[in-house]
Amino acid sequence: MREMVFASSEASRDAHRELYHFGEQSYILVTDNLIDTITAFNGDSNRLHISSEWADVIKLAVWKSDPGIGDVLFLLRNMGIPSEELLPYRRADIADLFPWLYYGKRFDILRKICFAAKTNAERYVKNRDMRIHCHLSSVDPNRIVASSL
User: Fold this and answer.
1) DSSP conformation class of 106
2) What is the residue-level pLDDT of the chain in tens, covering all 149 positions?
3) Going by C-beta distance under 8 Å and a sequence separation of 6 or more, which residues neighbour residue 99?
4) Do 15 and 146 form a contact (C-beta atoms < 8 A)?
5) In the chain, how many domains are there?
6) Mind giving me the DSSP string for 1-42?
7) Containing domain of residue 83, as a range?
8) Cα–Cα distance between 143 and 15 in angstroms, integer?
9) Bridge partner residues of 48 (DSSP)
10) DSSP codes joined into one string, 59-103
């Protein structure tokens, strides 16, 4: 069984490599549209890891290449965050939500987002027998902060 890793940046690749120690040949840097890459992937592996930063994991969780703040707030509300807590972010940038969740120690929500991204990726990948794991990495510190595992 061969495991592949789609990393959306070198930092995400390095964060994954530090934890999982896969060989260099297992990593593919995806600088284009991650959704298109996943739906077109027809590799010879049984497992695919996706190691990405906030913006790309959100794209997978809502399955849109260009999600709006409304998409993300709807996702967060469905994951258990009350509407009152989300009101200050209704006109915010999507990137502003990650520090709020991370430094607010809402790791349960970050994990649910990874699981939503994993579920969507498994739904749309060509090889239906492939298991996908999603890892949310952070630049500061450069490590995986949440995972679907």
Assistant:
1) -
2) 588 999 999 999 999 999 888 888 889 999 889 999 988 887 777 889 999 999 999 999 999 999 999 999 999 999 999 999 999 999 999 999 999 999 999 999 999 999 999 999 999 887 767 889 999 998 877 889 898 98
3) none
4) no
5) 1
6) --EEEEESSHHHHHHHHHHH---GGGEEE--S-HHHHHHH--
7) 3-147
8) 5
9) 4, 132
10) HHHHT-SS--HHHHHHHHHHTT--HHHHGGGTTS-GGGHHHHHHH
Q: What CA–CA distances, in Å, run from 21 to 34, 52, 87, 116, 124?
A: 23, 17, 41, 25, 27
Spatial separation of the C-alpha atoms in residues 69 and 97, rounded to whole Å: 10
Taking the chain, what is the end-to-end CA distance rounded to the nearest angstrom? 18
List the structure tokens of 21. Answer: 């120690």
